[in-house]
Amino acid sequence: MVRAFVAVELPEELKRSLLSSLPEMRGVRALDERVVHITLAFLGDVERGRLGALEERLDAIRLYPFEVSFRGAGLIGSHGHAVLHASVETGADALSTLSSAVREACSASGIALEDRRFLPHMTVGRISDLSKCDSKLREFVKASLNRLAGSFMCGSFWLESSVLTPSGPFYTRLHEVRLRGWQ
Q1: Is 37 a catalytic site residue?
Q2: Assuming Cys at both sites, which of 23, 84, 150, 159 could form a disulfide with 175, CB separation 3.0 to 4.6 Å?
Q3: Which fold has domain 2-178?
């Protein structure tokens, strides 16, 4: 079994720029830039034998490259655990279309996914208990429109595996899918 997901990877300089704009905030653990991405679909544990069929179906997705831009921050979760994320400003519809196509490819490959609404975002921090966060978090989210911004052209996405370790997740890129015309 392989713990897998499908994601859009961001340029390293954009990840560094977005993460460096985060101030120190009590209760917020900023992510390491090596694990920052936009998740299109979390597959969970998948039999290795299904990955080949999934790769073929992912390769059949025929979408064109598109721009993704971030502006501002938000929180997902309201009690207990939450994530701090960079909000997608441009490209949300294209990311949703891509996520739907990926989910269809998974289904056609016999991989059942959780029935979860796709919310285009990039997680930049994790919060284990919102009640322990200080006012800096809410202030940052309110003031983030001018501080958390950047863009890139999305020309590909990846099937990846994830191994959870005590020091954090370790990701391996298994298969790249390039969008139409992307070099």
Answers
A1: yes
A2: 159
A3: Cyclic Phosphodiesterase; Chain: A, (3.90.1140)
